Every structure is written in C-alpha cells, then in structure tokens.
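INTERNAL AUDIT FORM
Audit reference: QA-55
Scope: verify that the stored structure record matches its stored sequence.
Auditor: D.O.
Record contents follow.
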Amino acid sequence: MGGGAGFEALRPRLLGVAYGLLGSLDEAEDVVQDAWLRLRRHREEGGAEIGDVVGWLVVTVSRLALDVLRSARHRREEYVGPWLPEPVLTGAVAGGPVVGEPGPAERVTLDESISMAMLVVLESLSPAERTAFVLHDVFGLTFAEVGEAVGRSPAACRQLAARARTHVASRAPRFDVDPSAHRRVVDAFARACLGDDIGALLALLDPEVVLRSDGGGVVRAARRPVLGAAKVARLLTGLRRFGRFELVPASVNGRPGLLRYREGRLVTVIGLTVAGGRITAVDMVLNPEKLARLTRADETRNRR
C-alpha cells in the first residue's frame, strides 16, 4: 500500500473492525487515525520495511481498539440505563431522505452480523474475548494475527474465541435474512406506532420481545430493558404523549430500521430485530451524544 490514497481505500474496512470492537464510530475513527499516524511515523523514522502493510494496520487498529475497550469498560458499567452502540446508517430506504454524512456506507464497511442487537451481546464479553471473536469469526483473521492484537498465543486466542462463540450462540438474536420481509414488518410497525394501534403492535411483537432505550441519563428513556409484548406495546403507544413525530425508514447497521423526527429534528434511531415475521428486539438510541454525528449531517444537508 502506498501513501494516503491507499490508506483511504482501506479506511472503511479498518473502521469496520474498530467499530465492531468498540460500538462507537467516533472512537473507531480516532483509533484508525492513530494507526495511520503510527505507520507514517514508522516510515519517516526509517523503521524496518513492513511486508504486509494491510495486515499491520488491521492488527494495530485492533490493538489500539482493545486498549480503548478496556478503559471504556468501567465507564459503560456506570452508564445510566441500557448502553447501546452508536448507530451507523448504511443508506436511506424506501424513498426516505438521505440521512447521515456523505457516503456513510462507503466510509465504514460493516459485516452483516454487526447489528445493533449483536453489538449488545458483544458488550457482555470480556475485552479479550470480544476481540478474538470479532477478529476471527467476523473478519476472518488467523489466530496468529489475533494473538498479535491481544498479546496472547494463538492457542490462547483459539480458547478465547471458543468461549465467546459459545456465549454468543446462547444469546445472539435470531433474525430474518430476507430484507424485503424485514422491511414489511418494519413498515407495519411504523404504521402501528403512528396510529397508536396497540392491537397491530401486539400482532407484530414476539411474546418475549425486549425493548432497550439508551438516553444516557441525558434525555427521558426507560432505565431498564422492557420485557414482553404487552409492556412494550404500551410504552410505544405512549410516545404520542411527548408530541407528534415522524418515522422515516432507514438502514440501521445494515438492517431495515427507523428514524424518529420531532419538529424536523432527529431524536431517535430505532433498530429492529425480526425473526419469524415478528419483532424480537427494539433498540432505541435517544442519547443526543450518539446522534450528534447524524444531527450535524442533517443540518448540513438542510443548509444546501
């Protein structure tokens, strides 16, 4: 890989790796930029020739992300209410507005398995387990490469990934693979929410559905996950108490989801997990800090 142009071509993959480890696009971008600066400094100081620059960058990004993940663990344990990842919009859907910064799908390459719900499951792993699982099972790195990132032997990394795989398999969300079927359920969900139709919502929600809402202690949100179709439907039909809103279809972390606007301002990104034609998880990001990037992009587009 040559200079900056080669790095820019690789940046989406590096961002995808870092985001899969951290669940924060802001932190992922910081890590990727740090890795690039380290590579430049290595070359400027006449360091040894790096045979596989792409592999070196992937391992360096992973190592830096692991350090951030370890330091963030305590902060997330003290987080007010459920912690959800910063949402990534991978394209507008069904005639909705183009939301997000220019070319969001080109700036970060997300594996199809890195859904909002899956990132919530990954939060329950130790930093080393998460790194081994994401790098090997999601991005296909060898255990020797994983070992370079986590500072352990390939055999130890194999064990880390196996433990993580068992944990993820027991908790990973089921989902429908047909995007059009998923989108039909999401559209019906939007109509039911806008119409305060609790009967329609109950027909769409899995009996054991879970709703997580992340307000970060900054805005009003449920402090604990809401379990069961009846409780989730009541909460959703009560949203009108806080004023009129609009729901716009969008692709959230690679799957059909919704954006909730109030008076023209983005207030919530909603990720929905659908399995067997029913919604099994509703993940609502309301924390303004996690929506700031998307809000800025909206404001920039509106000024054009």
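Auditor finding: record pair retrieved intact. The first helix runs from residue 4 to 22.
Action required: none
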